[in-house]
Amino acid sequence: VQLVESGGGSVQAGGSLTLSCAGSGWTSRDYCMGWFRQAPGKEREGVASAYTAGDSTYYADSVKGRFTVSLDNRKNTVYLQMNSPRPDDSGMYYCALAWGSVCEAWSGYTEWGRGTQVTVS
């Protein structure tokens, strides 16, 4: 399994940024892909996730209404549209994969990308 994030960078508060994560190395269609983030000195936290079938998406309370996660299961690619980011959204953003359909269980993600840095100023 390989997960490769892209799209990170610097953005002004109130702007927008879109992250992408391209996955490869599996054929199952029963999985979740999600986004986590970690700020310096803080624990990694789940941000948003989506399931391959249907419109099941999950969000941390801190990003609801501002971020949108979407999953293209034909490409094994997950996106995170970040609207109106705030400085406290800054951190390293990681893409992750969980097998099965329990996408809201942040502890169930077992495959990880290397991360992409997001800085909001």
Question: Which terms would index this structure?
Answer:
121 residues; mainly beta; seven-stranded mixed β-sheet; four-stranded antiparallel β-sheet
Describe the structure in your own words.
The protein is mostly beta strands and 121 residues long. Helices cover 0% and strands 53% of the residues. The protein contains no helices and 11 strands. The strands form 2 sheets. Strands 2, 4, 5, 6, 9, 10 and 11 form a 7-stranded mixed β-sheet that branches. It has a 4-stranded antiparallel β-sheet with strand order 1-3-8-7, with no helix packed on it. A hairpin with a 4-residue loop joins strand 7 and strand 8. The mean pLDDT is 96.
Largest sheet: 7 strands, mixed
Extended strand count: 11
Average pLDDT reading: 96
- Helix/strand order, N-terminal first: EEEEEEEEEEE
Structural class: mainly beta
* Low-confidence regions: none
Supply Rg.
13 Å
Question: How much strand content do the residues show?
Answer: over 45%
Specify the overall morphology.
Answer: globular
> What is the helix content?
under 10%
Cα end-to-end separation: 34 Å
The count of helical stretches stands at: 0
In short:
This protein has strands spanning 2-6, 9-11, 16-24, 31-38, 45-51, 57-59, 67-72, 77-83, 91-99, 111-112, 116-120. The chain is an all-beta fold and 121 residues long.
Indicate the topology.
Layout: E1 2-6, E2 9-11, E3 16-24, E4 31-38, E5 45-51, E6 57-59, E7 67-72, E8 77-83, E9 91-99, E10 111-112, E11 116-120
Parallel strand pairs: 2-11
Antiparallel strand pairs: 1-3, 3-8, 4-5, 4-9, 5-6, 7-8, 9-10, 9-11
